């Protein structure tokens, strides 16, 4: 259980570090990425970006 918590924590840290770079590359502004305001806060649901990055990670994992 502790290992999974560490993996999730590290993944969230990496995502937060690479978010500005990904925005510069155009990720997060793809069709299917939802951005809306609710309760005075801006919400962001990156469905298409998540699918593309998952496919890229899967491809890299298969090649290795």
Automatic annotation (TrEMBL):
Regions crossing the membrane: 43-61
Q: Which InterPro entries would you find in this protein's record?
A: DUF2905
One Pfam family, please name it.
DUF2905
Membrane listed as a keyword:
yes
Q: Which UniProt keywords apply?
A: Membrane, Transmembrane, Transmembrane helix
Q: Does the keyword Transmembrane helix apply?
A: yes
Q: What is this protein called?
A: DUF2905 domain-containing protein
Q: Which organism is it from?
A: Ottowia testudinis
């Amino acid at each position: 259980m502790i290992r999974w918590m560490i993996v999730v924590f590290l993944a969230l840290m990496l995502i937060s570090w690479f978010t500005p770079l990904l925005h510069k590359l155009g990720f997060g502004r793809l069709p299917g990425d939802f951005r809306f305001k609710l309760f005075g806060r801006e919400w962001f649901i990156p469905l298409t970006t998540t699918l593309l990055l998952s496919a890229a990670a899967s491809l890299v994992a298969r090649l290795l």
